[in-house]
Amino acid sequence: MRSLVLLGLVGLAAQLVDGSLGMAYGVTSTTLLLAIGANPASASATVHLAEIGTTLASGAAHWRFGNVDWKVVLKIGIPGAIGAFAGATVLSRLSTEVAAPVMSIILLSLGLYLLIRFTVRGLDRKNLGKPLRKRFLTPLGLVGGFLDATGGGGWGPVGTPALLASGRIEPRKVIGSIDTSEFLVALAASAGFIVGIGSAGIDFAWVGVLLAGGLIAAPIAAWLVRHIPPRVLGSAVGGVIVLTNSRTLLRSDWIDAPAGVALAVYIAIAVVWIAAVWYSVRRHLAERDVGGPVLDKANNPEAEAPGAEAPARTEAPAAETA
Q: For residue 66, which of 156, 159, 175 has the smallest C-alpha distance?
């Protein structure tokens, strides 16, 4: 019973982070399942079955708050589903020990880029609204879906930084679109696991409690991402990516860092990350107070541009005199 309660709390916390930052549900949940003795295939299958419900609820909540770009969802979600099905069916035969460090280096580089870019510059609006091309989204979806199924998580860590780095879509819509498209990935991965290992290796009680925790957290996370300024959100996401992938590299066979060294690195990263988020918050508040660029305007599409009220006030007298 205690394990089920713990799993429910993990599901809630994981979805709260995933729905707010666009990543970490699968990684968090799968890590716990492996820690209590589940084999990789059944752990990933359990998490993806739970994600069918959590991603559906999260997608609906993000849609309700206007955080979804449906063109991006379809262009990245369908290739992601194909990649996830392929990854799920070969998980029992595939070793990711070599691929994981390589991908972590790529993701770590993206994380550093995002952390520096959003902390120092904020949201670059010159590319906002430009369409994301299929030749970019299709391979991204295939790779992200495959890694998500084989590693028990990876859709968010692959898709979120790549879309944020493009600078063509608002951070809140990046997260909302990634979370919504993950429903297709979870559905396809689950089907692949059913084909590959059957349903006997899946504990449906675990699936249920993970799902329950995620369903509670989904609308809260969607509301949070609607109101977090893009600059702060970008810094937070960058820090998550750097910390997560640094851990993967330090524990890999390539480095195999001693526990003391790894702990020192984690503390240093955490200090820099907290400082970056703090700086982003201060910059956001300062720019808002002095009437400069309001960085969370992208999170509020109903907000009017500066000076928009002036023409409205000048039109009324003209209409009355006519």
A: 175
Q: Tell which residue, 239, 231, 213, 199, has the closest CA to residue 12.
A: 213
What is the DSSP secondary-structure string of 50-82? HHHHHHHHHHHHHHHTT---HHHHHHHHHHHHH
**In whole angstroms, what is the distance from residue 219 CA to residue 197 CA?**
33
Q: Say how far apart CA 115 and CA 122 lie, in whole Å.
A: 10
- Ranked by mean pLDDT, the top range of 121-125, 258-262, 306-310, 318-322 is 258-262
Residue boundaries of the structural domains of the chain? 2-301
Q: Distance (Å, rounded) from C-alpha 99 to C-alpha 148?
A: 13
The pTM is what?
A: 0.65
CA dihedral angle for residue 142, residue 147, residue 153, residue 155, rounded to 10 degrees: -20
65 CB burial (10 A radius; 0-12, 13-18, 19+) = middle
Instruction: Tell me the mean pLDDT in the region 97-114.
Output: 72
Give the pLDDT band (50/70/90) at residue 302.
very low
In whole angstroms, give the CA distance from residue 47 to residue 49: 6
